[in-house]
Amino acid sequence: MSRMSEDINMSSINDQQKELNEWIRFGLRLGLQSALHPFEYAKVLIQIGYEPVAPRPIRSILGYETMVLPNIFQYVKYIRSCDGYIGCFRGLTPRLIGTVMSTIGSERIARHLGFVAEKDLDYEDDINDSDGYQVARIEEGGAEERERKAFQRKLKRDIIVHTSTILIGQPFQVISIRMMAQFVGRETIYSSFWAAVKEVYRDHGLLGFFSGLIPRLLGDISCLVLASTTAYFINKHFVSEKESRKLVPIFASYIFSTIFYPFHVVSTCMSLTGASLTAGRPPHMPIYSNWRDCWQHLNCTGELKRGSSLFWRYYRTPEVINKNFPMTFAPLPTVTKYK
């Protein structure tokens, strides 16, 4: 009886320690998000097409002259020169609130639907025989089926968590983006969180809090499904080493996040277009009727990849490919001297 009591107490202690570790990791995540916010701030301004610093001429490795825009560090430095150190963290509060709300809410939704977080089951506890060949200690026949079902269940849970995270966090994302976009016109309309809530509702009603939701949802969920499925397929058929199998999902996620990056640009622009801000109206940004309209315009002007490169940002002169979409962006600052 005492043995059973000790086991129960030990299990309770382990559960408490596990929960504590989860909260510590979550706190570190919020801290890292806060520390990196100035770079996210600069990236948002780049995504909406705002370039306050003139491109400068350089000579490329191949020897020809080209123009480059400031990298992400120089952009943050410019923001700091205008608004000071505190100004670099504009829009952080709604981002943190959105992270907390969406993380807690999405986990509760997943649990309510019966998708409890589980440790990844390793069906390939490999050992080496005397000849150096790997021998998998798994039962024949049923192992692949168990692994496939485990993958399907994990993928379903990830889709539910990601979808609910986006749905819960989108209103805070919209508020954060609009707070940061005030930098363009030097406005103070979104001076506080509640003032921002009131302003978004006044401009677009309740639907305004979900501006840019569809492209963000399409991009993130498509990236998740394709990256997870590709990694599972490659690991199943081509990779046998345990350590190598851990790297495949990382590379798959990177590749597909690059492919679906334009959806993030469109989502950011749609979160801002039509707002009562200089950055959300002509000449800085057209007023888009829907996200497909935004996609078509950015595609025609070659701007779907805005902000994808944060270090080497080459400047290309915008060209009008489709007459239905005249250029309405404010011109960049001119270079006084170019040789």
Automatic annotation (TrEMBL):
Q: Which residues form the signal peptide?
A: none
- State the Solcar repeat positions: 149-237
InterPro entries from the entry? MCP_dom_sf (IPR023395), MCP_transmembrane (IPR018108)
Instruction: Indicate where this protein resides in the cell.
Output: Mitochondrion outer membrane
List the keywords (alphabetical). Answer: Membrane, Mitochondrion, Mitochondrion outer membrane, Repeat, Transmembrane, Transmembrane helix, Transport
Q: Tell me the superkingdom of the source.
A: Eukaryota
Major localization class: mitochondrion
Query: How the protein sits in the membrane?
Result: Multi-pass membrane protein
| Alphabetized Pfam families for the sequence | Mito_carr (PF00153)
Q: What is this protein called?
A: Putative mitochondrial carrier protein
Q: Where are the transmembrane segments?
A: 159-181, 213-235, 247-266
State the species of origin: Nyssomyia neivai
Q: State the family it belongs to.
A: Belongs to the mitochondrial carrier (TC 2.A.29) family.
User: GO cellular component terms?
Assistant: mitochondrial outer membrane
